[in-house]
Amino acid sequence: MPVRVQDKPEAFCVSSAFGEWSRLLRSLVAIAALIAGLVHPAQAHSLDEIDAMLKSGEKYFQTIDKPAPDFTLRTADGHVVRLADLRGKVVVLHFIYISCQDVCPLHAEKIADIQTMVNSTPMKGQVTFVTVTTDPSRDTPDVLRSYGPTHGLDPVNWLFLTTNPDQPEDATRKLAEAFGHTFTKTEDGIQAHGIVTHVIDKEGRWQANFHGLNFAPVNLVTFVNALTNNVERLHHEQGTGWWATIKGMF
Prior knowledge:
CATH superfamily: Glutaredoxin
Distance between the termini: 62 Å
CATH class: Alpha Beta
Mean pLDDT: 83
Low-confidence stretches: 1-19, 35-39, 237-250
């Protein structure tokens, strides 16, 4: 299957039971690091400081800092979800298609690891995980409903979105392009694509990408933690908001 990725996914040659245990152990170690205070994003003066910290040790991290592409999609149960509906929550978004049998399941399970870490902290109610299918013609509602439980995703703060009936079949692939990468569909239904996890802040601003499958989940959780604590970029603080107004009075 011709899949273009930014890094090579790990090979898994162990039993599923051992894989589940390893995933749980990695999550617990990362959570312990957060609780022990090894990372303190809320204490940073700006999101730029978080960026600098991550760039020094996470080669798959990319700063974006621009408005996120808008979307209006729907769940398997037909509920319409707009990007504006997710305001007030940090959004962790990625694209997959279900007939992809190699990197897409690994990506979903990586997101599940991150969700487990987030949901074990007070951030649980402040973060929404969004998966978007790029193959809406084959990823039917029944298929969408079964995907999350299969890959360990918790519906408490996870959405799997597809196109609305009045949208073209390639609408979500066009959305992926708007987020900077492609899902190129061939005649046999295979899609060549990259692996990117996007992070959107509470105001709908696209703040960062984590590329491929080899980034450290704790680094994404660190970045999300900063966003849940409303840490802003310096140029945002200086230009707008209540703090800029107060400073302007003196």
